[in-house]
# Entry
Amino acid sequence: MTETTRRFPFFDEAEPPAGAEGWESMYPYYLVPSEETREHENAQFWFADTMHWSRGCHPFDSIGAEAVYLGVGTFSTRIFALPVSLGLDVRVVNGYVYISPLNVADPEEVQRRAAIFQERAGYYYANWDELYGRWKTKMEGAIESLRTISFPKLEDFDPAEVVTEARGRSTSLAVIENYHRLIDEFFAIWQYHFEFLNLGYGGYITFFQFCKQAFPLITDQTISRMVAGVEVLAFRPDDELRGLAALAVELGLTDVVTAEGSPEQTLAALGRTEEGRRWLDAFERAKTPWFNYFAEYGFTHDQQTWASDLSIPLQGIARYATKIAAGEDIARPVERLRAERDEIVAEYRALLTEEEAQQFDELVGLAGKVFPYIEEHNIYVEHWAHDVFWQKAWELADFLLAAGFTEQRDDMFYLNRYELDTALFDVVDSWAIGVPARGKQRWQKEIARRRGIVAALQGETAPPAYGIPPEQVTDPFAVMNYGVTTERVADWLGTGEGGSTTLTGGPGSLGVVEGPVRVLKSEKDLPELLPGEILVAPITAPSWAPAFAVASGVITDIGGMMCHAAIVCREYGIPAVVGTGFATARLTTGQRVRIDGKAGTVTILDGAPDDSAGTGPAATQDVPGSHATPAQAQKIG
# Structure
């Protein structure tokens, strides 16, 4: 195999889509490839972060790429000093976000960083509960601070209080000050995000590596099941839907909540009876904060939350109510998971020496302690904080529209954060002087140009990677969260072992199941998923929770062992293969497949959609997700 075929294109070899020429001018210079940085960029391996940006991002939305990778870099490289991993470098290419893991190669530097890491991480591990409690307080404070931001309309004259209270400054300054607060709070929130995340992964990975060394035949899923059954905040929104469904059945409202119609029609029908009004009271109590939940990952200005699109939670409630009314038990099997977890832990612990068992106890305890943060932080940051951030961004967009600076409400998002700062000063300064804004025509022309560019960028999918792949992908963040493994990279290059009838991915959750697939690109399409079907999605987010009560298996394009789909499928005992790369493109709704959650494979059983698919429960072969028993486990003595 030649060198050319063993690598992906370099950034400078990437051609823009037709109509997207000049896209680089939309983003801050340090986010785009350049001649100055070409040597570094061509020496690195870059993969697409389509987990967070599933489509080409608007200029303003690129703020997430700045804040996220500043946060991960700061805490990996400069604060906790991860021994073998630095931060993740980031670039925007043809509108898509690409990241590159940076590793520490020098053994002496690894040792130097390890000493710092042990001291600093050890402090957090030893005081985890207290510090995590303080983290939640910090996050709640940051979210409330965002809520206080406003952008007052520029009236003909400042309020009289500016004079009678001798304030000595115009209220118009609040527009610029609050914009800076909005940006600063967003960056601070992403610093908080990584205060615990890498340590959470680190605690789990340390336990994972111990088990792999002590029990060479143990599966990844068996290790993960040793921390299963832990109550985490990420399940709470779905629990609210289940509770509301149960209340609807109890009050005799099943027909009302399952009737076809708009959210407005459903809520109006409920308001006509005493039982319905009682249910609506419970619904309103659940909405805040549990419906402040994005259908995706909350990284773009145009995403909906459950609260802004009530059809999403109402569909979940209707589905659960139907199951309850039919006599089905929809409760998450927490007690069973805990019993299985304790049994697995005891079985493997019995194979160890007394000294090894003591270390095992410490590591499994640490993994169980840090595990909740891996899922819970998404609620605070990507959902609650991002929800308020984007609300305030839209309020700022309305301010610009009211000031006559923009022509359409979403014009603002075609400016990056630095350009917007300049435009806001223009608006305020021109108002203060008493002249029209001086950049209005300039920006309207540029925004019109950029609309065409963004449309062209979003019309193309992101190539999976650029640059030179490593011999082995070892970065834990890439493997655990994104599912970027050595095997996945080989598949992207077309050198993998999978054939035309096989997709390979990560072993997300044990079990084997056959059935027709349902390919869904968005959470809004979840009502199309029928019992017994295998869900195929780009990636799942916490807001996809109702799907796991219906699907017989799950396949995703993106994600690793610690992605949302893998974690939730293990909690529900559903077979899953994650990080396949191409499932939504290769599979068609109705095709029958077999997924093996232990091997991480998807076998296509037919080449065309099954005419009978989608008419009822699928025929499945459900193999229990049993772990390797101690008799099968091979221990290193």
User: Anything to note?
Assistant: Confidence is low (pLDDT under 50) at residues 608-637. Residues 215 and 635 are 5 Å apart (CA to CA). The longest helix spans residues 354-402.
